[in-house]
């Protein structure tokens, strides 16, 4: 097995994929397995069906998810990177909880744009037992997410975002209190840019040109007018309205160059604290930003109220 460098220490995939174990748990994966030039077992990551079946096997083997599938054309997320975000969020919350990683359903997380795969709630609930609320603007995505919940007997709250211009408005209710929000925002500003990004990615992987979008994806998952900066800026602006209902707001930021303008926006929002958390995943470095309107002495109170 090839070692994947620098994944989070608690990431179950830091040593790569154990295909013997995965195939034993999910025999349907075997026809999709191939050997790479070094003679190691892998799958063709350009093949949508192979990636979907690998995800199904990973979720069953490592996270006790018996049923998982997504409709054709929806984003098929890479599990190791997605669970890394969850682990680093657990560390972030531990910093507000006397350095103890919080576990259990009294810890509430809001996943903005949860998607057809429902990947963050599935992973976070399995690893830490948190209660998740997932929101999405796409009816098809929510239908898929609901089916995953029902067929696995999971209690995950799903909410439709009816307004494309809104992030938290219409989703966060008056009596809600969340310890953390998370988001993997659409990072391109147009479908054309999304296609160019995919071609660049395949070229960097030495795969040549491909007409396929990397891991699939609907328009709302891949791009929005103004791209990542505009989406996160809107998120920051609306977060002010819910400052006392959430301890930490967070979002992935795909482009490092976007951090500086986002920091300026956060300063204008007068947040109490702001962090950039870097996550190194193999050859790729990703990151998320986190901000809170609560002073440090209010953090432990937020946890105490949640347990009451």
From TrEMBL:
The record's catalysed reaction(s) read:
adenosine(1618) in 23S rRNA + S-adenosyl-L-methionine = N(6)-methyladenosine(1618) in 23S rRNA + S-adenosyl-L-homocysteine + H(+)
Q: Which Pfam families does the record match to this protein?
A: Methyltransf_10
InterPro entries documented for this protein: METTL16/RlmF, rRNA_lsu_MeTfrase_F, SAM-dependent_MTases_sf
Keywords of the record = Cytoplasm, Methyltransferase, rRNA processing, S-adenosyl-L-methionine, Transferase
**UniProt feature coiled coil, ranges:** none
Q: Where in the cell is it found?
A: Cytoplasm
UniProt key word Aminoacyl-tRNA synthetase: no
Question: Where is this protein chiefly located?
Answer: cytoplasm
In the UniProt record, does the keyword Cytoplasm occur? yes
Q: Name one GO molecular function term.
A: 23S rRNA (adenine(1618)-N(6))-methyltransferase activity
Which Gene3D superfamilies does this chain map to? Vaccinia Virus protein VP39
According to its UniProt record, the EC number is: 2.1.1.181
> Of which family is this protein a member?
Belongs to the methyltransferase superfamily. METTL16/RlmF family.
Function text: Specifically methylates the adenine in position 1618 of 23S rRNA.
Would you tell me the protein name for this molecule? Answer: Ribosomal RNA large subunit methyltransferase F
Identify the gene encoding this protein. rlmF
């Amino acid at each position: 097995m090839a070692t994947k460098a620098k994944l989070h220490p608690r990431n179950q995939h830091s040593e790569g994929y154990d295909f013997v174990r995965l195939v034993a748990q999910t025999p349907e994966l075997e026809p999709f397995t191939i050997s790479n030039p070094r003679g190691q077992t892998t799958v063709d990551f350009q093949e949508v069906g192979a990636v979907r079946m690998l995800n199904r096997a990973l979720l069953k083997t490592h996270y006790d998810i018996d049923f998982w599938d997504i409709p054709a054309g929806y984003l098929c997320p890479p599990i190791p990177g997605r669970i890394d975000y969850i682990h680093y969020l657990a560390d972030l919350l531990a910093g507000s909880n006397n350095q103890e990683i919080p576990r259990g359903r009294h810890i509430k997380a809001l996943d903005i744009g949860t998607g057809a795969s429902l990947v963050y709630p599935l992973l976070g609930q399995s690893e830490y037992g948190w209660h998740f609320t997932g929101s999405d603007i796409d009816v098809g995505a929510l239908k898929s997410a609901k089916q995953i919940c029902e067929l696995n007997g999971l209690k995950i709250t799903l909410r439709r975002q009816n307004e494309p211009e809104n992030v938290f408005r219409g989703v966060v209710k008056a009596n809600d209190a969340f310890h953390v929000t998370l988001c993997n925002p659409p990072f391109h500003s147009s479908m054309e840019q999304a296609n160019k990004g995919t071609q660049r990615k395949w070229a960097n992987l030495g795969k040549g040109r491909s007409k396929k979008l990397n891991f699939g994806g609907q328009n709302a998952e891949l791009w929005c007018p103004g791209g990542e900066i505009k989406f996160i800026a809107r998120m920051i602006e609306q977060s002010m309205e819910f400052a006392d209902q959430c301890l930490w707001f967070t979002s992935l930021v795909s482009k490092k160059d976007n951090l500086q303008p986002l920091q300026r926006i956060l300063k204008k929002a007068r947040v109490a604290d702001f962090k950039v958390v870097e996550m190194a995943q193999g050859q790729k470095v990703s990151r998320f930003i986190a901000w809170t309107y609560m002073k440090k002495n209010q953090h432990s109170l937020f946890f105490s109220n949640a347990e009451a």
